[in-house]
Amino acid sequence: MPKVGPVETWIDLTDVSPPFISFRTTFVFEADGAVLTSDSTLRFRSRAEIGHSLEAAGFLVHEVRDAPDRPGRELVFVARRRDAGHGDEAAAVEAVDAVERDLAAYYEQEAGDRAGRALDPRR
To answer: Residue 82's pLDDT band (boundaries 50, 70, 90)?
Structure first.
């Protein structure tokens, strides 16, 4: 890590109680031996649960897609406010398409940067 020195990290799974998964991330700083931990819990909601939550919040789900960088592993919900006009649906879908293209380009660049750092850790 620039200006800090090497940092060793690992993740330990601490609990699996669907729909929750808990884990601890540990960071060990080589320079002084300091150890930091971060405990996290993620909730994995079903497609139906997310759709119901959106509808309860006043949205209509227009479409559900695969995330561009994680097909089959993550969903993108395209929704609009229930009181929004119907004439701008095509524009909203095009805006989501543009965001997905930008995300895909970003993740592609990140993958290239990570590969470069693996080859030259000074980057």
So the answer is: confident
